[in-house]
C-alpha cells in the first residue's frame, strides 16, 4: 500500500497506478509501467487478473443496485477508470450515493476532478486499515446513512494486508456498522500452489513489501458471520457470469483466472 501522505512520489510504484496501467488507463509513472510490463511480458496472460476483477465488480455492483441498495463504500478503490462503482450503480438508480476511499494522493486528485459536479459521490484519502477514521470522516458522515442498508466493497484490497494487520477485523468493523439488509463484497488473490501463483505473489511482495494470498477457506472466513450468497467464494470469472458474454462454466479456466476469487455476503 502506498504512502498515505499528500506527496506523490513518482519514484515509488503505486498499487493503484499499476492497476490503472493494466486496465489501459493513463494515470501512471514509468516505475508503475515497469511493474505492469513485468506482468504483461514475463507472465503472459496474467493481465486477465485485473480485467476480470473489474468485470466481476461491475456485475456485483449492478446486482446490488438492482436489489435496492443505494449506498456504497468502496475501500481501496484505486484510480477512476471506466465503469466505476457510482457509474454502474447509477445506471440502475440515479440516487445512489458512493464514497470512494484510497490512500494514494493521485486517486484523490483525479477522483475529485472527475466527481466535481456529482454531489452524491465523494473521494476521500484514507488508509483501509484506519476503519474508525474512515467511519468518522466528515464526508462519510454527511453522505452515508448507516440506518439504511450499505454495500461495503473490498475489491482486490485485502490481499495487500498482512495477517498481523487483521483484515478480518477490518471487515468485522464495517459489518458491525451496517444494518440488516446490507452487503459486503470481497475479491481476493487465492493461494494456488503453483509456479504462477508464487511468481505473482513474490513480485508484488518484493515491490510493495506486503501482502498475503489466502486459501478459499481463509477468504470465506473474512466474511465472518455474514450469509455468503450463491455461488459462494469462486473464481471471479465464474461469479454470476453474464449469460451472453461470460459463459465460463463450459470451459476450463486459465491458471490466471483461477488466481483471484470473489464472494458477496448479506447481513441478515
Could you give the order of the helices and strands?
HHHEHEHEHHEHEHHEEE
Count of spatially separate domains: 1
Mean pLDDT: 88
List the total number of helices: 10
CATH class: Alpha Beta
Structural class: alpha/beta
User: What low-confidence regions span 5 or more consecutive residues with pLDDT below 50?
Assistant: none
Radius of gyration over C-alpha positions, nearest whole angstrom: 17 Å
Strand content: 5-15%
Query: CATH H level: which superfamily?
Result: Vaccinia Virus protein VP39
The strand count comes to 8
Largest sheet: 8 strands, mixed
> Which oligomeric form is depicted?
single chain
Shape: globular
Percentage of helical residues?
25-40%
Please identify, by name, the CATH architecture. Answer: 3-Layer(aba) Sandwich
CATH topology title: Rossmann fold
Q: Cα distance, first to last residue?
A: 32 Å
